[in-house]
Amino acid sequence: MGQTNTDMDTESLQKSERRRGSCLDGFLVISIIFLFVALTAVTGGGLVIVMDMRSKLERMPSPMASESKWTKEDAPYAAYKTQNFVYLRAASSELQNHTMPWTLVHYSSVSSLGSNFNFDSKQHTLTPEKVGTYFMYIDLNLTCTYKCNAGLLTLQVGDKMTCEVALPAVADSKPVSKKCWAVSRIDGQKLYTQMTVSEGLKEWELKLDSSGFGMFLVD
């Protein structure tokens, strides 16, 4: 009788452990799904914001235009130098192994540098002052000048994001575009962008007016 009770207790314990294990597995799966959905929502929302801000920037008058030409519709976006947003434009069209040179975009008295960021134009480093999670993106547009070789272009922003572009072998001015993005936590690091290129890509060049790097604080 004692042996029977022991067997029943052991069986009950095993069933209980299996139920707890099943519940734990279910909890882990739900947690992973929740994190995936949350990340998708953040990055998806961030992408919408970026695209919206980019469209607004493209509509704004050129730096040479006088402020008197700005319309009422443009006025709210003239102050796009918000605290938590920055956009840098490529300063050199040449592809080579070096620290990528960036430059600010200026529209009249407004620049693309938010007050939360420090930009060193000599060292080409960008430092967010606030600790937090940032949405980062790179927009690259390249064109072939004449008989271009195939190769790989890589831009690496510190250890926070990497953007790779596979360039084809072409004999005309066929354009190549690539958009990359990442969400990363930054705690006072100075960000610089290292460009690395394959040999024989001298005939490829970046389009300066549409190649850039941007980021903004998510949380």
Description of the structure:
With 219 residues, the protein is α+β, with helices and mostly antiparallel strands. 28% of the residues lie in helices and 36% in strands. The protein contains two helices and 14 strands, in the order H-H-E-E-E-E-E-E-E-E-E-E-E-E-E-E. The protein has helices spanning 2-59, 75-78; strands spanning 85-90, 98-99, 102-104, 106-107, 110-111, 117-120, 125-128, 132-144, 151-157, 161-167, 175-186, 191-197, 204-206, 212-217. Strands 1, 3, 8, 11, 13 and 14 form a six-stranded antiparallel β-sheet that branches.
Which structural traits does this protein have?
Jelly Rolls, disordered N terminus, 6-stranded antiparallel sheet, 219 residues, alpha+beta, 14 strands, elongated, 28% helix
What's the topology here?
Blueprint: H1 2-59, H2 75-78, E1 85-90, E2 98-99, E3 102-104, E4 106-107, E5 110-111, E6 117-120, E7 125-128, E8 132-144, E9 151-157, E10 161-167, E11 175-186, E12 191-197, E13 204-206, E14 212-217
Antiparallel strand pairs: 1-3, 1-14, 2-12, 4-5, 6-7, 7-12, 8-11, 8-13, 8-14, 9-10, 9-12
